[in-house]
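Hi all, long-time lurker, first post. I run a small reading group and we've been trying to get comfortable going from sequence to structure in the token notation. Rather than ask abstract questions, I figured I'd post a concrete chain and ask someone more experienced to write out its structure so we can walk through it together at our next meeting. Sequence below, copied exactly:
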Amino acid sequence: MPTFRSVATSLSRRAVPRASCRHFSTTLPALAAKNPQILLQDEKNGYGFIRNNPRPPKPRERGVTEIRGPYYSVMGKRYLSDVLETMGFHADGLKFAGGSFTLFPEKELRELIDLAHKHELYVSTGGFMEHLLTHPDVFSVTDRYLQKCKDVGFDVIELSSGFLSFPADDWLRLVDKVHSYGLKAKPELGIQFGAGGDTEASDLESIGTSDPGRVVNLGKRFIDAGVERMMIESEGITENVKTWRTDVIQQILKELPLEKVMFEAADPKVFNWYIREFGPDVNLFVDHSQIVQLSCLRSGIWGMADTFGKITTFRPDNN
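-- Answer (accepted) --
Happy to help. Here is the structure in token form:
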């Protein structure tokens, strides 16, 4: 059972500065170049006369969309530039899944991160910390990892333990460690042990799932520790299951604030369900190839049979 303990008082939660007052925005706002107004919100010269659900400006606390970057497909600066020049207004964060970012030459990685920042996206690692926690010299490896992530421009460090049995107190120490570097911790929580990889559904089913109450209890502790947002792992809930565990989702949102959680939903039927059930304000993680379809749903201008023309809001513009 891996642990993350230290006698050093510098790791005490009382001694580490909190990041709770900051939004999930980039840590380098000076680089941001304002995204051009989209036609749907241009009433004078565009399509703003058409009914839609207005999107607030960035940084957003609700209705946040984090997109997967390079993992299932290769992504360079020209590819990402095409995505963000056209859909940058609708994307809030860019995630390098797994340890994909370690495979890049440094110059090219920095170019992708800088490009995301210019379009006002925060940049997140994937759950690569899970691999680091298996190292015998875990403290020095973690320090070097966080320092390098900060140096190349990452804003958010995802902390997952889908393959590990990891004590809650040690997870909180790790959150504090991330915050001490001026980075933002994003714990990934779920009910399925073995989630986050390419495990067969039959193997996951044989392992079984944990009680959703564990996710809620950990979530409350993370919020108290200054965590701004947590990722909810889809496996065991809407992925690799025979029947979706919508009861788990309902329990999480009953106990935890909507703006504090983000749901993995990289499947059109899944993010369609989330928008139908919770409206355009639910925070979702999707593949970059799905950003247009999801944005149409959030805006209420397109959808599937159960959402077409049915996603509405009652609020002033930009709220």
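A couple of things your group might point at:
Residues 237 and 243 are 8 Å apart (CA to CA).
The two ends are 45 Å apart (CA to CA).
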